[in-house]
Amino acid sequence: MILRPTAKAANLLRVKPAVGVQPDRDDWYLNIIWIDRRKNALLAHAETAFPIFVPDIRAADLRPLGPWLRAAITASLADEHLRRTALGNLGVGEPLIAKTASRQLLGFMNETALRAQWQIDGVGEIGRA
Question: pLDDT tens for residues 2-20?
């Protein structure tokens, strides 16, 4: 599995993304967004832009990254009644960390983050959203 973190996410993970890794339709993107003074993860699948919002994370939650990533994706797919492999092979080890390759997907993630913030503000707190 290839994970393409934003600069903010790469800093949190303390990783330097590999350059020159060719984009694949089954890549996953990761961004860290702050809402209510809490760190939250926003994942998106490269081909489908399937978004996954994981509230209230800590850097320690992301280590090791592979199991956390697979668990977040698998749980979200199950919530939508989709197979674990519906969006590609999730692998078993640590993901390859590569530089982001799609400005369009990053824009979509920013829009998704704004919508999440708006929805959370509407109900008053992240736990109720």
Answer: 999 999 999 999 999 999 9
> Would you say the pTM of this structure is higher than 0.85?
yes
Q: How far apart are CA 25 and CA 27, in angstroms?
A: 6
Helix, strand or coil, per DSSP, at residue 129: coil
- The residues near 109 (Cβ < 8 Å, ≥ 6 apart) are 6, 29, 31, 42, 44, 51
DSSP 25-69: TT-EEEEEEEETTEEEEEEEETTT--EEEE-S--GGGGSSHHHHH
Q: What is the pLDDT of residues 91-114, one digit of tens each?
A: 889 999 999 999 999 999 988 888
